[in-house]
Amino acid sequence: MADFTFHHGGVSVPSLDDAIDWYGRVLGFELERSFYITEARSKTAMVRKGQLRFELFEVEDAAPLPDERRHPPSDIRTHGNKHVAFRIADLDAFLDEMRAKDADIAFVVRQAYGAGCFIRDCAGNLIEFVEEPAA
């Protein structure tokens, strides 16, 4: 089997500058590089936090995110990529931090199998944060 590791997730946004600001201010990502993808007609940026990366695309004439893609239970009813998820140590502390930064908290779940939340970025894209139960 081929060996590979995770490199990045990608999201389309209406404003590259707003997204670079949001990912930096809310989640602590820093701009790694900006470039233009001619074939996609996309102003593009790679933001990074440690080994984590997001590729942000501002594509000419892109359609906005449909409403049903903004809520986790309805989003999974459409095939395709859904979200990326990050591990956090303490869900309550994370939620407090997100509220202090006026982040758009989309969904919180606390079940026997684990706890977590989804937030929406400045374009409505879902990002999951998971607190794994103690072993």
TrEMBL record:
Keywords: Metal-binding. The keyword Disulfide bond does not apply. GO terms for molecular function: metal ion binding; methylmalonyl-CoA epimerase activity. Residues 5-132 form the VOC domain. Pfam families: Glyoxalase_4. Signal peptide: none annotated. InterPro entries: Glyas_Bleomycin-R_OHBP_Dase, MMCE/EMCE_epimerase, VOC_core. This is VOC family protein. GO terms for biological process: L-methylmalonyl-CoA metabolic process. PROSITE patterns: VOC (PS51819). Transmembrane segments: none annotated.
